[in-house]
Write a structure and sequence with these properties.
There is one protein chain. By secondary structure, the protein is of the alpha+beta class. It folds into two domains: about 15-35 and about 95-160, 2-Layer Sandwich (VC0802-like), CATH 3.30.2130; about 35-95, Alpha-Beta Plaits (2-Layer Sandwich), CATH 3.30.70. Helix content is about 30%, strand content about 25%. It has helices spanning about 15-25, 45-50, 80-85, 115-125, 145-155, and strands spanning about 30, 35-40, 65, 70-75, 90-105, 130, 135-140, 160. Strands 1, 2, 3, 4, 5, 6, 7 and 8 form an eight-stranded mixed beta sheet that branches. β6 and β7 (about 135-140) form a beta hairpin. The protein is elongated. It starts with 14 loop residues before the first helix and ends with a strand.
Length: about 160
Amino acid sequence: MPTSEQQPSTVEDSPRRAGVEALLSRARVEVLPATFVLVGMRHADWARLLENPELSPRPDVPFMLLRDAHEVTLLCEEEDWLAMRHAARDARVERGFRLVTLDVELAWDVVGFLARVTEILAAAGVSVGALSAFSRDHLLIKQDELATALRALGGHVEELC
């Protein structure tokens, strides 16, 4: 518990902020060429898709899956969704995303990296969905906001790819 003379540290006023800025300055921002779809579906629809391997995302392209108590969420390339959508007709679908990779390896004890990135994008008026892989963060950004996002990030990162 901080005493009355001590203030709780924040990412903004701590050495961590400098560490986050250093990480961000080493990041390469990569935009995958494909258009992605975010799909929310019932568990039963996902089970039906699993029964037929031809209705699964291709194994050699990026995709992400999260099953929680409420739904199954699938992020996949538009091409894969078009091949499986008939088997999940009641799915909720958001289209037109680009997958942006922040290519800098992050340890799990890094604090504030994604907060800083989303702060920069929020200041530019860009809506994002954040995804974390084991060692890198990724962003879902709508195609029509991609140029704005890249301009906003450009002065903070090592390279835009």
